[in-house]
Design goal:
Distance between the termini: 41 Å
Oligomer: single chain
Shape: flat
CATH topology of the largest domain: Immunoglobulin-like
CATH architecture of the largest domain: Sandwich
Largest sheet: 7 strands, mixed
CATH class of the largest domain: Mainly Beta
Number of helices: 2
Number of strands: 29
Length: 398
């Protein structure tokens, strides 16, 4: 019996040395109840699975940061507090003949617990250009709202009346990328209450970015008499994404047929290269900037002379300018007739000049003009701390 136990121990040690203890699978977290940003006192329910290996039976471990907090398929967190905010992970583990095998940890699920009165719920994933973005301004205890305002980077972008807490921004562009917050106003017993949410980031991406061409003349992966052209771009279409075709050009002449590959191998001939990415289904076409390789012969441009207008011909004889000689003064006709006698200068009454008025400079105005439809973010009381309550720590429901 001792020899058999020793043999099994040595066999286990040998197998564990040749087989890894980490399986090539990754656990996945699914949020069953709640949201990524909740009020203190609310509940969140998470579920863990290993979808890449549904034949095996896995035990799921739960972590907050590096701390192990629970073991089971679902993690239920109720009566959440601000201090419970953080990143939650799960991991699968199962027992085998060679010992415990663990999966890779899941992508973290970040839970943000807000102790204030308002939360702006934004999309958890980047929004694509041209889509409609929906945001929700939640207020604790769900009062009947009178007015809602939406801000981007501290500037008002939308205002609406009524109880609906939802905002819908259509035809999103890259300019809509920014930090958003909302302000809600409601009335209780003839008193007006107004709160503002903590800012939340929104990312906006183009479906197809402008390509950037890279010329690699000395690529160790291709023959020495060839070079590689690489067309870099990002394609962010939703799954299932339609195909994108890539074209390469030299001196505005196409080098290859349409291909899904982002690179091509060509002879290292001097010229002006560029690439094009095209998604026919979506009607998207993006060109890269031209990139010169080697000595590129510039095409001589023929500069045509600019025609000058001819001088216009006169339609008649030139008019003689009037004489600038002043007319003789009244009563001195005899003096003009007899040039040999001295002429006495006429006497004029003295001219009285009006006193010069001193003009005072106008003081420069420094009035600040507020742009239309752009209301500065108001100064409000910070209510981002824990919502006052006397509940205990959150509990884990198995």
């Amino acid at each position: 019996t001792i020899k058999m136990d020793t043999l099994l121990f040595l066999l286990g040690e040998s197998l564990s040395a040749h087989f890894p203890s980490v399986a090539p699978y990754q656990a996945v977290i699914e949020q069953v109840q709640g949201a990524s940003r909740i009020f203190s006192g609310e509940t969140v329910r998470l579920r863990c699975s290993v979808p890449e290996d549904d034949r095996s039976t896995w035990t799921h471990l739960w972590f907050r940061g590096r701390e192990k907090i629970f073991q089971g398929d679902e993690l239920v967190l109720w009566n959440m507090k601000v201090k419970h905010s953080g990143k939650y992970y799960c991991q699968g583990v199962r027992d085998t003949l060679i010992g415990l095998i663990h999966t890779l940890q899941s992508i973290p699920m970040e839970i943000d617990v807000d102790g204030g009165w308002a939360i702006l719920q934004v999309p958890s994933h980047p929004v694509l250009v041209g889509e409609t973005m929906s945001l929700t301004c939640r207020v604790r205890d769900n009062p009947k709202l009178r007015e809602l305002l939406l801000y981007r980077d501290g500037v008002e972008v939308m205002r609406q009346k009524g109880p609906s807490p939802h905002f819908h921004l259509t035809n999103i562009t890259v300019k809509d990328w920014g930090t958003y917050s909302c302000r809600a106003t409601w009335d209780v017993r003839r008193r007006s209450h107004s709160v503002i949410s903590v800012p939340a980031d929104v990312i906006v991406l183009e479906v197809l970015t402008q390509p950037v061409l890279e010329v690699v003349p000395r690529d160790p992966l291709v023959p020495a008499n060839l070079m590689r052209l690489i067309c870099h771009f990002q394609y962010n279409a939703h799954v299932p994404a339609p195909p994108v075709d890539v074209y390469f050009y030299k001196d505005d002449e196409r080098l290859t047929m349409a291909s899904s590959e982002k690179y091509v191998v060509v002879p290292p001939n001097p010229g002006r290269y560029r690439c094009k990415a095209k998604v026919s289904v979506l009607g998207l076409v993006k060109w890269s900037e031209s990139k010169d390789f080697g000595q590129v012969k510039e095409t001589k441009r023929i500069l045509h002379p600019i025609p000058q207008p001819r001088a216009p011909r006169p339609l008649g004889p030139a008019a003689t300018p009037p004489s600038l000689t002043p007319p003789p003064a009244i009563g001195s006709t005899t003096a003009w007739a007899t040039s040999q006698q001295p002429v006495k200068a006429p006497t004029y009454p003295p001219t009285t000049h009006a006193p010069r008025t001193s003009v005072q400079p106008v003081a420069e105005s420094h009035t600040t003009v507020q742009p239309k439809n752009q209301t500065a973010l108001p100064k409000l009381i910070d209510m981002s701390g824990d919502f006052p309550d006397s509940l205990d720590d959150f509990d884990v429901i198995q």
